[in-house]
Specification:
single chain, 0% strand, mainly alpha, globular
Length: 137
């Protein structure tokens, strides 16, 4: 196993906490899977490199800073929404139906991913944030 010292010069092991190695492996797999799916979707829709970069930035932001958005949602839903948002930000909005068409052409695509989408916070996320689901805390 690599030592964090070798990677960052800190001298601490990368796997100081129980389960850290499993979590690291899981996150690497999630990132890799997201990369493949986002790349394929962007290629199908002929999206330029600046928007692809923005899609990835939005997606990473969700994973690292807004994990409550992931609760009860599929990885592909977040990828599609990131693509939609990046297009809007770049001033080159993509129709969501076009994004869905591209998604449906992916080998892992399943209709429940885009037909059954949680629109609000999950019960768990609402409880954690103190939101009662009615827009007031």
């Amino acid at each position: 196993l690599y030592k964090q010292e070798e990677l960052h010069g800190t001298g601490a092991s990368m796997f100081d906490h129980p389960g850290q190695q499993s979590l690291d492996l899981f996150l690497r797999k999630v990132y890799y899977l997201a990369h493949l799916r986002i790349k394929d979707l962007c290629e199908q829709l002929s999206v330029g490199a600046p928007i692809v970069t923005q899609v990835w930035t939005i997606f990473e932001r969700i994973i690292t800073h807004e994990p409550s958005l992931m609760l009860d949602r599929h990885l592909d839903q977040m990828a599609m929404c990131s693509l939609y948002a990046a297009g809007k930000i770049a001033g080159q909005p993509l129709q969501f139906k076009r994004i869905l068409y591209g998604y449906r052409n992916q080998p892992q695509a399943e209709s429940h991913v885009y037909r059954r989408v949680r629109m609000g916070l999950s019960d768990t996320a609402a409880a954690a944030s103190g939101d009662d689901g009615n827009g007031s805390s």
